[in-house]
């Protein structure tokens, strides 16, 4: 991915297609978990790739493209979320954050229930859970993405999991 960043930094837009293939799922998933809205997640994805395309020579200094992408996606999601809040659109969409592995009715119902409970978590906790469990980030990587200390990222994760357990009626 570093090679693609370097190619894009040199002004070759052909690098955008393979970068889209490599990053779009993570960026969209992070945005969905952060905003709770499929519409906003699509806006974040578009804004992220616009920022990537406009980054130009700054991309040559990026050492970890995936971490950089998650950090920029995080900022894009915050921007979209703030714009939505300024417009008075506070409610969350009926997003499915957890996709069932199979198509059974019971699993779809469970996935919908868990998704609704996840949307009840504070944005920062929901994002910390996604970064750690779904994106496979260490707490240090999650902290860099969220621009907080490592302890804060780990704490957001633990608090989010504890709150999710309470919402599900699972005792510690």
How would you sum up this structure, described in words?
- With 172 residues, the protein is mainly alpha-helical.
- The chain has two domains: 1-92, RNA polymerase sigma factor, region 2, helix turn helix motif (Rna Polymerase Sigma Factor, Chain: A), CATH 1.10.1740.10; 101-172, Arc Repressor Mutant, subunit A, CATH 1.10.10.
- Helices cover 70% and strands 0% of the residues.
- The protein contains eight helices and no strands.
- It has helices at 2-9, 16-35, 38-54, 65-86, 105-119, 123-134, 139-146, 150-168.
- Helix 3 (38-54) crosses helix 4 and helix 4 (65-86) packs across helix 7 (139-146).
- The radius of gyration is 17 Å and the shape is globular.
- The chain starts with a helix and ends with a helix.
- The mean pLDDT is 84.
Note the main attributes of this structure.
172 residues; mainly alpha; Rna Polymerase Sigma Factor, Chain: A; Arc Repressor Mutant, subunit A; 2 domains; 8 helices; 70% helix
Task: Offer a quick outline of the entry.
Helix content is 70%, strand content 0%.
